[in-house]
Model the fold of this input.
Amino acid sequence: MRVLVGQAAPIVGDVVANADLCIAAIREGVAQGARVVVLPELIISGYPPRDLLDRADLIEACMLQAQRVAAATLGTDVIAIYGCPWEEVGLRNSAVIAARGAIVAIRHKCLLPTYDVFDESRYFVPEDDPRPVEVEGLLLGVTICEDIWNEPGLVRHRYVLDPVERMRGADLVVNLSASPFEAGKPALRAELVRRQARQSRAPLVYCNQVGGNDELLFDGGSLVVGANGTVLAQCAQFRAENVVVDLDGPPIEPRFRPFEEEVLDALVMGTRDYALRTGFTSAVLGLSGGIDSALVAAIATRALGSENVLGLGMPGPFSSPGSITDARALAANLGMPFELVPIGRVHDAFLSTLAPIFLGRQPDVTEENLQARARGTLLMAASNKLAHLLLTTGNKSEMAVGYCTLYGDMNGGLGVIGDVFKTDVYRLSRQINVGGEIIPLATLQKAPSAELAPNQTDQDSLPPYALLDGILRRSIEGAADTESIVADGYDRALVERIARMVKRSEFKRWQAAPVLRVSGRAFGSGRRMPLVNRWR
Done:
């Protein structure tokens, strides 16, 4: 049997264009002699549609487009399977099965995830009696995303119902998926799909969507696996494509890329899709000569083209000469425009205006924050005037402990590296320089500094980043408590100090720009901490 895997990149709410993607895949399947065409979860609406699912007009439009897609199978031998929200005794997350020009069956998602970024029980009614369906002489086992994520010893979230177990006896099992990317997840997915194919004793086609929708990044990486668990095909990451596979074809060895390559590609795709899908073709950011802004600039130029990314150098009273020379060198290496916009007079104006109410008070962090806010105001002005998307350059370590200024360096429409710890910023930056220096060596070697006070470095306020990130990974991504982290060899006083900083900074993160998600626990929709709480 020949199958076409339609690894598509739908846009949430663009239901006509999303249906067109399905129709194009069906036509290619016909041309390639495919018997079955499989497309991602909720492709008609795009994923995640979130509260758009509360709109009756959206559901009606999706179901209408599902009928239009079905009509594309008329006069062909193709069976098409594609995702669509479906109103049937409540709203369902459904797989539509079409053949001979009509919808011939509908199967619904059984397992509705409510952890991390998922909240599907908010919208959908689950199926409680999954079973294969016969279509055109084929017994098809149809599952949707989470339905296969119920494997003992491999996944954390367990369900009483095991839909895959109910698919035994099927000629083919398919899984329509919209599985968000996180570093290291592709290898986990591959192992999961192989195990589930062996459990169902049938070939399994896993079709995952690709592209960035809001903060969620979908990497594709779709798989076709034989009944014995051998991989027959593996689609590319971060690229839409249709792949035709013969189920009796030879096995291949799946390939998984290093962390640095995978995460860089994810961030480039996420930046490009967020910008273009929100109506921007260009971006602006502050270039400080530091490592964070250098990495964001390199990602943005890959995403949007060097000529479409403007860097602003904004020296202040304590900026080192190297901050500007390094920023200029970076811009030249990337081929991006660069403008110098000093903030000295703006900062002085702030201070003189505030002098009457600051009278008799010693300078402190307030004056430092005024520098960041002067820069933030200028960047927002450039964004408004030039219609550029303003990219924030803060990393996950800074966001975690609040080493950032509201209405200053936090200004912007997208947090490109807000889910990348500082130590990983260096790893990604070194990857950028493979093949030739892009990020200046001086930027990689200098001590990190916000340059808001004389001879200031980040380590004046924070522990060394290797130490800080070790604690943060455990507490944020691992949800470990103080005792567990101390047991790993960390100083108790330091762990407790970092915990206080993380807790105190929650209000900043609630007001931060959307952050592209590349880890298992990013700041944003997947981490919902109360602002007011007294748990210690």
Remarks:
- The CA atoms of residues 187 and 277 lie 29 Å apart.
- The chain has three domains: 2-256, 263-458+505-510, 463-504.
